[in-house]
Amino acid sequence: MINQSSYYLIGFASGLAGVAASAGDGPIVIQQSQYLANIINRGIEIKWHDMIKPPIVTTQSLKDVLKLECTTLATAVSHLVGKKQQLCVVGGDHAAALGTWSGVYHSIHEQGDLGLIWVDAHMDSHTPETSESGRIHGMPLACLLGYGYSEFTTILDEKPKVKPENICLIGVRSYEAGEAEFLKRLGVRIYFMDEIKQRGFNIIWAEAVALVSKNTFGYGVSIDVDAFDPSIAPGVDVPEPDGLFLDDFLPALSTITNDPKLLATEIVELDPSRDQQTITEKLVVAILEVLAKPVSSS
Fold first, then answer.
1. What is the tally of structural domains in the chain?
2. Three-state secondary structure call for residue 157
């Protein structure tokens, strides 16, 4: 049974692995957001558990710094999951997922497997061999599957954190051949935008939740803000046209917020420097309000 006393946020204020370091400002903007303060003032009990930041000056390599950051995040997440607390990690670039889901896995793997819904315009499943840019924020899903740099595949535990049959991707519309072939070979279920438009988001979402719940102890949801259409989420570093809309997403998300199998959530890749009139900031807070509301009304 999930503890309903508070909804905890962990900030991962790092953009080191992404396109722009300014993505690391996203969690800080959310922490200081008047929109977030407004929903807290309405009685939704949200608490910041931690704000993880990269070192200001370091002689370490990017991989070493990122491993330290993600290990710190994983430890914090594992602690809260172990106490059955509801939580959301607010990134930062999508390398945050290395810490978030390594932490959830560490807490629950003796009880069963982890399922994962990955909401994203991209696949984030490159390995060092397939990545043209070399950016680590394009690799986290592959690392969680056990492929890629050993620094990131072994955070807290040396085993893969999630099995291919327990993952699905939603909203994909931009990818490279190498990562697509990688996920196809593993048999990972991908809901491309064309299928979502054809069949409807509610149907896709229900299928995804059933898939990640079927053979697992519990599941999580990783939300990259660039999954949404740039008209409602301009504040991202890699915008892709023809994305998701909140009118579809928020009602679907609300169907799982009281699910005892929902272990954690993360929202990543808000870059405030690219936002327009705080539109994307409002979007992140709107998602947090849906996630946290059951805590205060239970």
1. 1
2. coil
Q: Are 142 and 182 in contact (CB under 8 A)?
A: yes
CATH of the domain at 225: 3.40.800.10
**Catalytic residue numbers?**
94, 120, 122, 124, 137, 224, 226, 269
Expressed as residue numbers, the domain containing 28 is 3-297
Query: How distant is the alpha carbon of residue 208 from its chain centre?
Result: 15
* Chain-centroid distance, C-alpha 31: 17
Q: Which two tokens stand for residue 81?
A: 């999951």
Alpha carbons 45 and 64: distance in angstroms, whole number = 35
Structure pTM? 0.96
Phi, psi dihedral angles at 39 (to 5 degrees): -75, -30
Q: Supply φ then ψ for residue 47, to 5 degrees.
A: -130, 140
Closest listed residue to residue 232, CA positions, set 273, 195, 283:
283
End-to-end Cα separation, the chain, in angstroms: 13
pLDDT 10s digits, 120-141: 999 999 999 899 888 899 999 9
